[in-house]
Amino acid sequence: MSKKAYITTPIYYVNDVPHIGHAYTTIIADTMARYYRLKGFDTFFLTGTDEHGQKIEEAAKSRGRTPQDYANEVSGKFRTLWDQFDISYDKFIRTTDSEHKIGVQKAFKTMFDSGDIYKGEYEGHYCVSCETFFTDTQLIDENLCPDCGKETRIVKEESYFFKLSNYQEKLLKWYEDDEKCVLPKGKKSEVISFVKQGLRDLSITRTSFDWGVKLPKELNDNKHVMYVWLDALLNYITALGYGNDEKNMSYWPATVQLVGKDILRFHAIYWPAFLMSLNLPLPKHVAAHGWWTRNGEKMSKSKGNVVDPKEVADAYGLENFRYFMLREVPFGQDGDFSQKALIDRINSDLSNELGNLLNRIIGMSGKYSDFKITSINVLDFHKKELVSVMEHLKMAEINLNELQTNRYLEELWKALTIANQSITVYEPWVKMKNGENDFAFATVAMVANILARVSILLHPVMPKTTTKIAKAFNFEISNKSYIDYIKSENLLKDFVIEKVPPLFQKIEAELLTSPAPSVETKTEVKIKEQDSLISIDQFFETKLKIATVLEAVEVPKSKKLLKLQIDIGEEKPRQIIAGIKEYYDAQDLVGTQICVVANLKPAKIMGLRSEGMLLAAKDENGLALIRPETKKQSGSSVG
Ligand code: MSP
Known about the structure:
This protein is α/β, with parallel strands linked by helices. Among the domains are: 337-496, Isoleucyl-tRNA Synthetase, Domain 1, CATH 1.10.730; 542-638, CATH 2.40.50.140. It has 20 helices and 27 strands. A hairpin with a 4-residue loop joins strand 5 and strand 6. Mean pLDDT is 91; it is low at 515-532. It binds 5'-O-[(L-methionyl)-sulphamoyl]adenosine. Residues 10-13, 21-22, 24-25, 50, 232-233, 235, 259-260, 262-263, 291-292, 299 line the site of 5'-O-[(L-methionyl)-sulphamoyl]adenosine (MSP). 5'-O-[(L-methionyl)-sulphamoyl]adenosine binds next to strand 2, helix 1, helix 7 and strand 12.
């Protein structure tokens, strides 16, 4: 029996049409599903839509539609796009499917029966847009959501709770025992520190609206519907028939669960806790990618800067776009979309290095051997090159298994570089002239073998392009060729090359006016492995100013905080709350100058409004404020 793989995307909210961020998650997941199929795994790939909750109910209402009718329309848009994008999903789940609802009720009942769910009362600030509760200290400006900035509402209601607090130690043990359970590593550390701060029980039902899954009837409680995140997370098992016909549950546990960094907490904390309560195994990898921004800014409809993936794929080619997204950004980091970067990748990586290599092989084999390729002498002349190609291909797979898509592609391109350089170095045309035909044939056959091997491993990202290459070389990309040419390192049998048209067109200028009033020429953000570099424009988005301290007092009951009134050249003084009490006496600060970030959103710290942040440097010897060397006017800009 073949091994099983289960790959999932998050299910998408139906209050928004698909954009580049959704496409990114789905394309990585599609790549992983194709890769596992290539490796011979019996693979199940799931995607779908998340259709319940207050946000959807209100979005439908504001359009004069029923939630179901509205969800049908938007869910259809996601499905259509994934079909247009050749996304190889095996199931498209909708949380309004009746089997899903039955499965969710069964899960709720199981958790209830095992004593993990109890009834209580919840009061808190709720952000409808994020479908999340926040505590007082998390809010900005008393009632604004810290994630999206929208107003929160105070919700007080009877609620069922999940005993998340019971799972803190078990979760920490999972993170410790299973090194790669959350990827990448940096994100895993964030999850661990969040859990170490302590987990509170989770409110998992709502009574204030009813667009959601009802509680199991055995509970006899009609007032409640389930919290949308409980309903949504369970899709990963209801899609396999949990609570219904469970034959596909043999795919569980998931191999890779792809998520954006914004929803990692739900997937790396709540979801495994629910699974433990249900006595089910935990996913092998929960992998969180970064966000795509435009000109360094979050994309939003109101800003009009959303990148439409269909438009980009139509203009530049779907597979080119797939390659770009996976190659451009280190997994887990944020990336900035720019047509310029996309064009560079197409012209240089794809056209010059990949497409041209095929053209050169076709050209040389046509000239020297009537399109016939024989691998017979390859190992005699070119063993060294093939050994180092295989090292890169192995690294490529190691990286892909850890979702490091950019490094995986980099390794494949290193193999292509060996092929391209070999042509330049060994000059088969000179060898032919000198009568060293065997050597020349061996070089052509060696580069053809490299290209064939790279095509097999590139297939998950560029299925159509690589199929064209394989067709030109008269073989098929499949699990069999993966085993033959990658795992067993066999060489291609002698074959006749079929001439194919060039794989890529060079692109001279940007092809889209929208979504791109060419902001990328202003801000070129190149992503480094560890740090995201910012442009000068982005730096200047932070307004740093010199301030004079007018008043400073200690914040009662706080070990760390001082409350300062400062003059930053505005009509009225500003108040800032700073954690410097351990290092400075309040009175010593009055009259001195400091440097502050002046355009931060106001925040509440211990119930006090703070309208800025001062700059300080800290090391093992303590903390020092950053100040101007000589006195400057209050409000002078720093930068
Ligand atoms: N419905 C929830 C997920 C429930 S899964 C049980 C949800 N939906 S979403 O539609 O808002 O987002 C889905 C995915 O799209 C997330 O992984 C999110 O990170 C991703 N993206 C949305 N905008 C994005 C970018 N701008 N860039 C990259 N991905 C982002 O959350």
